[in-house]
Amino acid sequence: MKTSKKKKKLGIVKYDLKHRKIYLVGEVIRGMPRLVEAAIDLMRKKDPRAPISLYLSSRGGRWAESLAIYQVIRNSPAHIDVIVADKALSGAFLILQAG
Questions:
Q1: Average pLDDT, stretch 76-98?
Q2: What are phi and psi of 32, to 5 degrees?
Q3: Strand, coil or helix: what is 25?
Q4: How far apart are CA 44 and CA 36, in angstroms?
C-alpha cells in the first residue's frame, strides 16, 4: 500500500494597493511578517486613515512568524480587518485574532 505525503503549500503574501487588500495564502513561513509589514506601510503612505483588509487562507505554519504577524497588525496605527477567505488554523488563527 502506498503512503502519500501531504505537500505543504508554501505561503505567499500579495497585495492590491488600489483596493487596500493584503492576501496571505498558504503556510506561514519565514519572511512573511516583513512582507505584511511592508504592504501595510505602503498602504499607510498612500492614505493613513483608510482601512486595510487582510484576507487569510492558511493552515498555519511557523509559530514565531504567526506571532510576529499578529504583533505587526496589533501595533499598527492603521485599522486592519482580518477576514478568513477559506481556513485559519493553528498560527493563522492567532493572526485572525489580531484583526
A1: 94
A2: -60, -40
A3: strand
A4: 12
Q: 48 vs 16, 55, 59, 88, CA distance in Å?
A: 16, 19, 31, 28
55-80 pLDDT per residue, tens: 999 999 999 999 999 999 999 999 99
In this structure, what is the dihedral angle of CA atoms 61, 98, 22, 12, given to the nearest 10 degrees? -10
> Rounded distance, CA 40 to CA 61, Å?
21
Give me the percent of the chain exceeding a pLDDT of 90. 83
Amino acid at 83: I
Predicted TM-score (pTM) of this structure? 0.87
Please answer whether residues 74 and 37 qualify as being in contact, where contact means their C-beta atoms are separated by less than 8 angstroms.
no
